[in-house]
Design goal:
With 80 residues, the chain is mainly alpha-helical. The chain contains two helices and two strands, in the order ββαα. 4% of the residues are buried.
Protein backbone atom coordinates (compact mmCIF):
# COMPACT_ATOMS: atom_id res chain seq x y z
CA UNK A 1 0.00 0.00 0.00
CA UNK A 2 1.59 3.18 -1.13
CA UNK A 3 0.76 6.57 0.34
CA UNK A 4 1.28 9.96 -1.26
CA UNK A 5 0.62 13.51 -0.11
CA UNK A 6 -1.91 15.81 -1.68
CA UNK A 7 -1.49 19.57 -1.98
CA UNK A 8 -3.40 19.92 1.31
CA UNK A 9 -0.75 17.83 3.06
CA UNK A 10 -3.10 14.89 3.66
CA UNK A 11 -1.96 11.43 2.70
CA UNK A 12 -3.97 9.47 0.17
CA UNK A 13 -3.93 5.73 -0.32
CA UNK A 14 -5.83 3.18 -2.37
CA UNK A 15 -8.06 2.53 0.67
CA UNK A 16 -10.08 5.05 2.62
CA UNK A 17 -8.65 6.54 5.81
CA UNK A 18 -10.84 4.47 8.11
CA UNK A 19 -9.55 1.19 6.63
CA UNK A 20 -5.97 2.46 6.58
CA UNK A 21 -6.21 3.47 10.26
CA UNK A 22 -7.53 0.04 11.25
CA UNK A 23 -4.71 -1.70 9.39
CA UNK A 24 -2.08 0.62 10.88
CA UNK A 25 -3.44 0.13 14.41
CA UNK A 26 -3.55 -3.65 13.94
CA UNK A 27 0.05 -3.68 12.70
CA UNK A 28 1.13 -1.69 15.76
CA UNK A 29 -0.65 -4.10 18.12
CA UNK A 30 0.88 -7.13 16.40
CA UNK A 31 4.32 -5.55 16.57
CA UNK A 32 3.82 -4.93 20.29
CA UNK A 33 2.75 -8.53 20.86
CA UNK A 34 5.94 -9.76 19.19
CA UNK A 35 8.01 -7.41 21.36
CA UNK A 36 6.53 -8.81 24.57
CA UNK A 37 8.16 -12.18 23.82
CA UNK A 38 11.54 -10.47 23.73
CA UNK A 39 10.85 -8.44 26.86
CA UNK A 40 9.82 -11.56 28.76
CA UNK A 41 12.93 -13.39 27.58
CA UNK A 42 15.17 -10.44 28.53
CA UNK A 43 13.83 -10.11 32.04
CA UNK A 44 11.46 -11.56 34.51
CA UNK A 45 9.08 -13.70 32.48
CA UNK A 46 6.68 -13.86 35.40
CA UNK A 47 6.42 -10.09 35.63
CA UNK A 48 2.65 -9.48 35.52
CA UNK A 49 2.99 -6.26 33.52
CA UNK A 50 3.94 -8.17 30.32
CA UNK A 51 1.09 -10.63 30.78
CA UNK A 52 -1.38 -7.79 31.39
CA UNK A 53 -0.20 -5.77 28.39
CA UNK A 54 -0.22 -8.88 26.18
CA UNK A 55 -3.85 -9.59 27.13
CA UNK A 56 -4.86 -5.99 26.43
CA UNK A 57 -3.12 -5.92 23.05
CA UNK A 58 -4.50 -9.33 22.08
CA UNK A 59 -7.99 -8.10 22.90
CA UNK A 60 -7.42 -4.90 20.91
CA UNK A 61 -6.00 -6.84 17.93
CA UNK A 62 -9.02 -9.16 17.95
CA UNK A 63 -11.36 -6.16 18.01
CA UNK A 64 -9.53 -4.54 15.09
CA UNK A 65 -9.72 -7.81 13.14
CA UNK A 66 -13.45 -8.02 13.85
CA UNK A 67 -13.93 -4.51 12.48
CA UNK A 68 -11.90 -5.32 9.36
CA UNK A 69 -13.92 -8.51 8.90
CA UNK A 70 -17.13 -6.50 9.18
CA UNK A 71 -15.87 -4.06 6.55
CA UNK A 72 -14.89 -6.98 4.31
CA UNK A 73 -18.39 -8.41 4.59
CA UNK A 74 -19.73 -4.99 3.61
CA UNK A 75 -17.41 -4.90 0.59
CA UNK A 76 -15.43 -1.93 1.93
CA UNK A 77 -11.95 -3.50 1.62
CA UNK A 78 -11.82 -3.14 -2.14
CA UNK A 79 -9.10 -0.94 -3.57
CA UNK A 80 -10.32 2.42 -4.76
Amino acid sequence: MSASETSSGRETTIVDNEIYNLIAALAAKLHGLAAYDKYEADGQANDPIWQELRQQDEQAARRLLQQLDQFAQQGRLRAG
